[in-house]
């Protein structure tokens, strides 16, 4: 399964010069917890999260009651003041496994997807992956069989159980390898067995 097959296209983005309040409104309206920061040409600059935006914006009204030295806090005014630069990104033709590995290892909910020129083309989130993996087995089987038919391999069969594809009808190692590679590109496939 490739990232391009599960990612969300046209994600909500923000430019570095955008004001903090406007960026918060954009996140709230979209119902997401972070968004890519891009330049005018859609090149990925970084990521801005809810935590980035709210840091240093809320004062403790009891601070004057404590006997501590209060340093003046410079409040950020634009996304450029708070966003995370050099984010980890994946490509549209990367295997979803690579994206899942990064998300689980780093605790990220989503990753930007960039093309070979580092332009943003989408976002892949844990919920995108869940949706793909939750696909109905019969829909997965239909997609696999359609791929086989498009390449003229009408004698190949595919049965899917819990996302695991069982392929029969191949005659040699080259065909088995092709059937395996094709099946792995279908959204919802978690493993492939070729007999």
Task: Describe it.
The structure is a single chain. The protein has 195 residues and is an alpha+beta fold. It has 2 domains: 3-133, CBS-domain; 137-194, Histidine-containing Protein, Chain: A (2-Layer Sandwich). Helix content is 33%, strand content 19%. It has 7 helices and 8 strands. The chain has a 3-stranded antiparallel beta sheet with strand order 1-2-3. A 3-stranded mixed beta sheet has the order 6-7-8. The protein has a two-stranded antiparallel ribbon with strand order 4-5. Strand 4 (110-114) and strand 5 form a beta hairpin. The longest helix has 14 residues, at 137-150. The radius of gyration is 23 Å and the shape is elongated. The chain starts with a helix and ends with a strand.
A few lines on this structure:
The chain has 195 residues and is an alpha+beta fold.
Topology summary:
Layout: H1 3-6, H2 20-30, E1 34-38, E2 44-49, H3 50-54, E3 84-85, H4 96-106, E4 110-114, E5 120-125, H5 126-133, H6 137-150, E6 157-161, E7 164-168, H7 173-184, E8 191-194
Parallel strand pairs: 7-8
Antiparallel strand pairs: 1-2, 2-3, 4-5, 6-7
Output the keywords.
195 residues, alpha+beta, CBS-domain, Histidine-containing Protein, Chain: A, 2 domains, 3-stranded antiparallel sheet, 7 helices, 8 strands, elongated
Mean pLDDT: 90
Helix segment tally:
7
- Determine the N-to-C terminus distance: 21 Å
In percent terms, what proportion of residues is strand?
Answer: 15-25%
